[in-house]
Amino acid sequence: MRTVYNRKAIALLLAIAFIALILPISTVQSRSVDFRKLPFVEYATAQAVVLGPLPIFDVDISGSGYATHLGKITLRQHHTVDLTTTPPTFYDGTYTDTAANGGTIFGTYHGYMVPLQNGDLEIHGVFTIDGGTGRFSNVVGGGRAIGVQHPDGTAWLLLIGTISFK
To answer: Could you report the per-residue pLDDT of 64-74, keeping only the tens digit for each?
Structure first.
């Protein structure tokens, strides 16, 4: 026995199946348009100031450098260092990078330090980009940080990650 199908019913079922397949894809694509995930790199030199007695103390850091999407920057950081841990750690870090046009990005960070034989500390960290001002008001992102802290308080930092614009 041969079954006869209504052409209109088949066309309707195919249209529904097509929409069911395309709708999730278009939803994902529209979200990716809202957030452009781009590479973020920052290089800076800085000076650290110890704000309390050892072995657990706060540190203020100021410096300057260059960051993708911001250009020339000044930076301000604050964190707590704990020398009683192995390796020594830093935590509760907050930072603000200010671009030449006054726009900022800000976020948090934490990590650890590896003491080197010459007295330097090798810095290993993780940072988040939590927001900003101006054209950076809806940014998010993050990545990894490396650097070297010298005994005289000077340091260099390299941040590599991503930044997403809404």
So the answer is: 999 999 999 99
